[in-house]
Specification:
Blueprint: E1 2-12, E2 15-25, E3 41-46, E4 49-51, E5 57-63, E6 70-73, E7 76-77, E8 81-85, E9 88-92, E10 99-107, E11 110-121, E12 125-130, E13 133-135, E14 141-147, E15 154-158, E16 165-166, E17 171-174, E18 177-181, H1 187-196, E19 200-205, E20 211-221, E21 225-230, E22 254-259, E23 266-269, E24 272-273, E25 277-281, E26 284-287, E27 298-305, E28 311-318, E29 323-328, E30 331-333, E31 339-345, E32 352-357, E33 363-366, E34 369-371, E35 376-378, E36 386-393, E37 399-408, H2 410-415
Parallel strand pairs: 4-11, 13-20, 30-37
Antiparallel strand pairs: 1-2, 3-5, 5-9, 6-7, 6-10, 8-9, 10-11, 12-14, 14-18, 15-16, 15-19, 17-18, 19-20, 21-22, 22-26, 23-24, 23-27, 25-26, 27-28, 29-31, 31-35, 32-33, 32-36, 34-35, 36-37
């Protein structure tokens, strides 16, 4: 009797595929045992591990599968098996014993075995996450600890205010450890989570479909939120380009209002650090200087950054402070009604112009705006001829002054032959 022994080994990760094929014949030509075709073979199974409870699908790969091919896991037939093609089949795993089990394909008298090809695991558990909090808008590397994690598992963050959000990339370190990065949320999502006062849950889905969760185990810290700026009782509407927060009536403090501020947070204008800013509480910080690297008034971004690196960027209008360079004319009649043109920078188109005494301490009346461009006003009636100070407040609330501005008698004005916006006849 002649015996042929053929052995093949196909490597799959750390597992080996051994397929022993024996063929024998007697001298009378009769068959002497099972005959296995070298082309019929099982080469792999995915996933290669799963719960001992069973009742989930796996994909079996190989060659020369037919519609009559059947499969067993650890000697137990698949609950159902479907041959998809000559190289692929789907098996619904039966319940089994924890540990490595052979995967066997049968086609009539032909057999092919993937030795220790599938591993039954115990019930998977998730016992801890570290760290337990992180910035909502910035991915945080977390480590999950438990048991019976399987290669190919996915991780998601679950919260009532969110759709299920994947934590990725997922690294299966071993059967007890997984690492992944939390999903970057939007600022508004982070605010909704904090407003709900509910922590997020971690959900692991093993390839066998089993779900493992650690409820309310991770805290997303919210991004800072900007709401407004205020300037106390100064009457100022916008910060100045030069950063010197002085309205002309005394120094004031700008308050930045919002939510989720942290002690130690920073504020920048453009790419430059702001002047003197300090944390007040979780909804306020104050600044006494916000210089802007720009020469024209308009919107400039301010950036608030918490200690965890989360930011909020808000465009803020920065204004030119007014400067009066000249008046035309520099004097008018104390009986009022003369037009004075005001030249300068940062004057605004909704300026308020007032006349004060020479010491700039007592208001004598307003000079209503006659034209916005060029800026001019109509002088008020005063009680007598005198030297005064003209005070202008621009749209942003900043003041400037011009001194001296003389109010004189009509006779003096006529004899000096000065034009003040209308023809004046001598008396």
């Amino acid at each position: 009797m002649l015996i042929f022994l053929v052995q093949g080994c196909v490597s799959k990760g750390t597992e080996s595929l051994s397929d022993t094929v024996a063929q024998s014949s007697g001298t009378d030509g009769s068959s002497g045992g099972q005959a296995t075709s070298l082309g019929f073979v099982v080469t792999g199974i995915l996933p290669s591990a799963g719960s001992f409870v069973g009742n989930y699908n796996v994909s079996i790969s190989g060659s020369q599968f037919t519609a009559t091919t059947t499969f067993t896991i650890g000697g137990t037939p698949c609950i159902t098996s479907t041959v998809v093609s000559s190289s692929s089949a789907v098996c619904k795993i039966p319940a089994g014993s924890i540990g490595l089990q052979d995967v066997v394909a049968s086609k009539g008298a032909e057999l092919s075995t993937l030795a220790s090809g599938f591993r039954y695991t115990g019930a998977a558990t998730l016992t801890a996450v570290s760290p337990t909090l992180g910035p909502a808008t910035i991915p945080t590397l977390i480590t999950l600890t438990g048991t019976n994690f399987i290669e190919g598992a996915s991780v998601n963050i679950s919260h009532p205010t969110l759709a299920l959000s994947p934590c990725q990339p997922v690294t299966i370190v071993n059967a007890t450890t997984i690492t992944c990065y939390t999903p970057p949320l939007t600022a508004s999502q982070s605010h909704a989570i904090r407003a709900s006062a509910i922590l997020s849950s971690i959900v692991i889905t093993n390839p066998d479909g089993t779900l493992i969760s650690l409820n309310t185990s991770f805290d997303f810290t919210p991004a800072p939120q900007y709401t407004s700026v205020s300037y106390g009782a100064s009457g100022v509407s916008f910060p100045p380009l030069d950063g010197v927060l002085n309205s002309g009536l005394g120094v004031y403090t700008m308050t930045v209002n919002g939510n989720y501020f942290e002690a130690g947070m920073t504020l920048k204008v453009g790419s430059s650090a702001a002047g003197s800013c300090s944390y007040v509480n979780s909804s306020q910080m104050t600044c006494t200087s916000l210089p802007v690297a720009g020469a024209t008034e308009g919107n400039y971004n301010i950036t608030l950054t918490n200690l965890d690196g989360q930011t909020v960027i808000q465009p803020l209008f920065f204004s030119l402070k007014p400067t009066i360079t000249s008046l035309n004319p520099t004097q008018a009649r104390f009986t009022g009604g003369d037009i004075v043109t005001i030249n300068g920078t940062g004057l605004g188109i909704a300026a308020v112009i007032s006349i004060y005494n020479n010491a700039n301490t007592v208001s004598l009346g307003s000079c209503p705006v006659a034209t916005a461009v060029p800026l001019s006003c109509t002088t008020p009636v005063l009680g007598s001829a005198q030297t005064t100070t003209m005070r202008l407040k621009n749209d942003a609330g900043y003041h400037t002054t011009f001194n001296p501005f003389n109010f004189i008698t009509a006779t003096t004005l006529a004899f000096s032959n000065l034009q003040v916006g209308r023809v004046v006849q001598g008396s």
